[in-house]
User: What shape does this take?
Amino acid sequence: MKSVALIVTFNRLEKLKLCWAVTAQQSFDYVVIVNNASSDGTQEWLNGLNDRRLHLLHCEENLGGAGGFKKGASYIADNISADWVFIYDDDAWPQDNIIETFSNLNQHSDYDAFACKVVNTRNELCKMNLPWVRFPKTFRENVDYRQSSQEYVVNPERCENVITFSFVGVIIRYKTLVNNLSSIYEGLFIYFDDVYFSAHLSAAGHKIQYTPEIYFVHDVPDTTSNDMAAWKVYYLIRNMLLDKKLMGENAPFTFAFKAARVAKYAMLTLKQTRKVNYIRYFMKGIADGICGRTGRRH
Assistant: This one.
């Protein structure tokens, strides 16, 4: 089984160093790192690495997570032959012996992708990376989802068929990735690119399994603060509203879902320290989402 790791990085050199230290110890056949025009010494540090498996892509501009993964996947399609692609961010890393563990679990599988369990550095479940088993459709289902999401996202402790995955900790067949490159929407810049890509795969009949026996560690902050960078709410709203434009009849979100999510972000205005800036990006996200504008716009 030939394997390739695909990692995207931007201005997180210290976290990338840890990511690389763990990755380098794994038995990947290839490692592709996409550097999104980092300005913190990442390029110089990467260029100093000596590993025959390593392929470096230095971008001239920041393409975001969506553009970075699209660029890396396209490079793999054109330059590397493998069986499986392991995808994760620069602030994440795989469990020890992930190739061997995956190979043993996957000997007779007909799945096209595996969504892995994702935990933080305290070994706590990262709920943000849990895949969906179904999307809430009706207004009532969206109310139920807000109260308890357990009917809509995977049970984190058991294997289960899912309809989405996160780009933090997914293992995907090389041919499945290569044949569906056009459905990684680089214009999203950040957020929802993995949801839409995996939802496209599910709609096309590809089988995805959540597999808790394999895990990744995601080095996310230990915080419950609702005070977020204003530019983040822009992409969260805009990209959610773009689902119909990008996916047509396979768009995953109903009007009820989108209305509930926009209302949630509106209420978070009260908890922001820079309310005016937050409101500006909030409104811009709605406008650009309705008008179908993509790309980096912050």
Observations:
- The radius of gyration is 19 Å.
- Strands lie at 3-9, 30-35, 54-58, 84-89, 92-94, 113-119, 160-162, 170-173, 208-218.
- Residues 275-291 form the longest helix (17 residues).
